Amino acid sequence: MNNTIAIYPGSFDPITNGHLDVIERASKVVDKLIVGVLVNSSKRPLFSAEERVTMIREMTKHLDNVEVASFEGLTIDFAHQNGARVIVRGLRAITDFDYELQMAQTNRILAPDVDTMFFSTSLQYSYLSSSTVKEIAKYHGDISMCVPEYVARLIEDKMKEI
Ligand code: ADP
Prior knowledge:
The protein is α/β, with parallel strands linked by helices. The protein has one domain: HUPs (Rossmann fold). The protein contains six helices and five strands; from the N terminus they run E-H-E-H-E-H-E-H-E-H-H. The chain has a five-stranded parallel sheet with strand order 3-2-1-4-5, sandwiched between helices. Helix 4 (94-110) links the parallel strand 4 and strand 5 (115-120). It is globular. Residues 10-12, 16, 18-19, 22, 89-90, 92, 96, 121, 125, 128-130 line the site of adenosine-5'-diphosphate.
């Protein structure tokens, strides 16, 4: 049997119900899913990479075949380092499509042995993005529909710090 290892790279700043939905679904079709938290030096994240890794681990601890790690640099290098042949990404709307297609094609040129697998968003999460969540939280709006309670509390605490 093939042992299919996949990575799910992203900023996850913070993880939302939309991301978690993709993780749950992807974990059912691959043998191992590694969520890769991108340490992106050009963006100023709300949560540090360590904080993001910790919160994703907490939110996925019920999924036996899901691991979480942070990475820097190229996604395909992270895939190769982990023996992964699949990159998981989510598609919400047509606005994601151009960017995601371009990235998938670039990654295929760089690493023909790695393929991208897209999960279309579940309808109830199609509006959801990490930046929307941060914007709502900044003005003390209700984010309980967007993220698990545990994450909502971390966001509220973080907003008090800044
Ligand atoms: P990035 O900065 O790499 O786009 P994100 O954390 O914003 O990282 O997203 C990671 C992946 O998850 C992307 O493929 C994105 O399209 C997907 N994604 C984000 N929000 C949702 C959602 N609500 N439903 C499905 N996929 C999503």
